[in-house]
TrEMBL record:
Coiled-coil region list: none
Pfam families, sorted: SNF
Protein name: Transporter
Binding site residues for Na(+): 65, 67-68, 72, 329, 361, 426, 429-430
GO function terms (MF aspect): gamma-aminobutyric acid:sodium:chloride symporter activity; metal ion binding
Protein family (similarity comment): Belongs to the sodium:neurotransmitter symporter (SNF) (TC 2.A.22) family.
Gene name as annotated: si:ch211-117c9.5
S-S bridge residues: 170-179
PROSITE patterns in UniProt: NA_NEUROTRAN_SYMP_1, NA_NEUROTRAN_SYMP_2, NA_NEUROTRAN_SYMP_3
UniProt-annotated location(s): Membrane
UniProt source species: Gouania willdenowi
Length: 647
């Protein structure tokens, strides 16, 4: 196995020059000294100390704020009831342990070990640095369109301080003559598909919107008219952008200013703000549940939420929904978790943190189901319909079902304001931590001695926020919802996130080496994690990603809005360009690195074969170690090859 070491030096160097960019595979830097720890402890180099969290709880709260978001409240409860109630927890918890926790832990540990953000952390395997670029593209798209949910939430919050609520009655200038408040007369409703979003990816799921039979009769609910005619001012399609809504623009400006000042000073400011934005929604959830269980029909709603249907376990869709929800709700593949982990102290127990955060994330999803279905049970009882007729997910729950439900409650403005304030906070910390991940990645990439490298963090953050704001202007027009749905359906869809998670596991397990990464983690936390982690990275999680990825591709359906409007072909092409802009970063970067090799095509092919078969990792350093299962040989090269023997 060590015979490769005796290849002529002139052959080795051309093969290894594919990773010759300055800064590739830089060793990580200590937090408690001026030295950097290198792989296998081969060499100690001077390092620059990186900013760290003031308290370790700042990191926990930031991860909670980022990963625990709107998807936990408005998507998981719907999926649980739809897929067999309590039975859904079986595949869900299985995917938590074989998909969610392993990749969640991988991203945090990678950032903590390399002391770099989402892009530069992948210097650990320079050939696959495109993984970092892909995550930057995805999180940029997420930051761009996810904020629109906060904007709509802020708009509803402002209008909650009126009595009666503007969406509870007809007679406003935005209402049509067909607007009616008599919902009981039109309770025979059918399903309509509406956009559904989660905090990290925002994919579409089927929803059930009250009032579809009313519309068949020519009648429309005031809450639907407020949403479509007042808030969205919905046009006829993507090719009809229409005018900008200046009320929504003001909300957009206010939201971006709030996001900017939450994270402009880095983790020192983020770590303080997130205590409120992450914890207060839990208080509101408890208050809403305490009120919800006192309402008529609440118990029926909770029973409907948990009632087990064991036959559902035999349906493939149930397992796919469980796996998809895990990758979405755990905010995997966005690079933000890696950025947050990079601010940890080197010896922080990130392994323990991963399990604690997983418990909080999934526990919040389960608890939110009681809040949602207690209210939906009340709503069904008040309207005299089955709960399945009012069960919704995504914006359908946030901006139609729940606003309608609060109009049936005493002190409706109070409960509306509480709900939308909670919605705003749930999305706000996901938003500014996502922007933090983007800024961290950019700052790590800027050459420190260049003009760009001298830019202050506050300036870079402002530039990013302004660019996102300018793109968002396309979503505050009359056709803005169609643009929003394009971003939602394609740019951070299940396909892109699963592709990202698959390659993260493959690169760490088969290129860098799962055992080597486990040793690196042990160096940080002081003990070896359970071996099930490396088994998941090497086999189980990639298989799960491929299976769910193939399912999404095979079952792909063209994008529609409300099952009525079908996007034109050019609109779908724009959507696929958004998706491929991140997915192609990985293979194109590999191709670029290989084409820059100074060796012949034959030599490059041999290197690629080594990468696939011998688990090769290339490093810049003054000293490297060739590792074999029986012996270690230390040699000096400017560039050197680290081969982990298969025997």
């Amino acid at each position: 196995m060590l015979s490769i070491l005796y290849l002529p030096h002139s052959f080795l160097l051309p093969l290894l020059n594919w990773c010759g960019d300055v800064g590739d595979a830089c060793p990580p830097q200590n937090q408690d000294g001026s030295v950097a720890v290198t792989i296998n402890g081969a060499v100690a180099l001077p390092g620059v100390e990186r900013e760290t969290w003031t308290r370790q709880m700042d990191f926990i709260m930031s991860c909670v704020g980022f990963a625990v978001g709107l998807g936990n409240v408005w998507r998981f409860p719907y999926l649980c009831y739809k897929n067999g109630g309590g039975v859904f927890l079986i595949p869900y918890l299985l995917f938590v342990f074989i998909g969610g926790i392993p990749v969640f832990f991988l991203e945090i540990a990678l950032g903590q070990f390399m002391k770099k953000g989402g892009v530069s952390a992948w210097n650990i395997a320079p050939l696959f640095k495109g993984l970092g670029l892909a995550s930057m593209v995805i999180v940029f798209f997420c930051n761009t369109y996810y904020i629109m949910i906060l904007v709509w939430g802020l708009y509803f919050l402002i209008h909650s301080f009126t009595n009666p609520l503007p969406w509870s009655t007809c007679g406003h200038y935005w209402n049509t003559p067909n607007c009616t408040q008599d919902w009981r007369a039109y309770h025979n409703q059918s399903s309509v598909q509406l956009l559904s979003s989660t905090p990290s990816n925002m994919s579409s799921v089927p929803l059930f919107i009250n009032g579809s039979s009313m519309e068949a009769e020519g009648m429309r609910s005031p809450v639907i008219e407020f949403w479509e005619r007042k808030v969205l001012r919905l046009s006829g399609g993507l090719d009809e952008p229409g005018l900008i809504s200046y009320e929504i623009v003001l909300c957009l400006i206010a939201t971006w200013v709030l996001v900017y000042f939450c994270m402009w000073k880095g983790v020192k400011s983020t770590g303080k703000v997130v205590y409120f934005t992450a914890l207060f929604p839990y208080l509101v959830l408890v208050v809403l549940l305490a009120h919800g269980v006192t309402l008529p029909g609440a118990l029926d709603g909770i029973v409907y939420y948990l009632k087990p249907d064991w036959s559902k376990l035999g349906e493939a869709q149930v397992w796919i929904d469980a796996g998809t929800q895990i990758f979405f709700s755990y905010a995997i593949g966005l690079g933000a978790l890696t950025a947050l982990g990079s601010y940890n102290r080197f010896h922080n127990n990130c392994y323990q943190d991963a399990f604690v955060l997983a418990l909080i994330n999934s526990g919040t999803s389960f608890f939110a189901g009681f809040v949602v279905f207690s209210v939906l049970g009340f709503m069904a009882a008040e309207q005299g319909v089955d709960i399945s007729k009012v069960a919704e997910s995504g914006p359908g729950l946030a901006f139609i079902a729940y606003p309608k439900a609060v109009t049936l409650m005493p002190f409706a403005p109070l409960w509306a304001a509480l709900f939308f304030f909670m919605l705003l906070l749930l999305g706000l910390d996901s938003q500014f931590v996502g922007v933090e991940g983007l800024i961290t990645g950019i700052m790590d990439m800027l050459p420190p001695k260049s003009v760009l490298g001298s830019l202050r963090r506050e300036v870079v953050a402002a530039i990013c926020c302004v660019i996102c704001f300018l793109i968002d202007l396309s979503m505050v027009t009359e056709g803005g919802m169609y643009v929003f749905q394009l971003f939602d359906y394609y740019s951070a869809s299940g396909i892109t996130l699963l592709w990202q998670a698959f390659w993260e596991c493959v690169v760490i397990a088969w290129v860098y080496g799962a055992d080597r990464f486990m040793d690196d983690v042990a160096r940080m936390i002081g003990y070896q994690p359970l071996p099930y982690m490396k088994w998941c990275w090497s086999y189980v999680t990639p298989f799960v990603c491929v299976a769910v990825f193939v399912f999404h591709v095979v079952n792909y359906k063209p994008l529609t809005y409300n099952t009525v409007y079908t996007y034109p072909m050019w609109g779908e092409m724009i959507g696929w360009m958004l998706a491929l802009s991140s997915m192609l970063c990985i293979p194109l970067t590999v191709l670029y690195k290989l084409l820059r090799c100074k060796g012949s095509l034959r030599e490059v092919s041999i290197l690629l074969l080594l990468l696939l078969l011998l688990n090769v990792c290339v490093f810049h350093s003054a000293r490297c170690i060739f590792v074999n299962s029986k012996e270690r040989v230390s040699v000096d090269f400017p560039l050197c090859l680290n081969i982990r023997a298969a025997c």
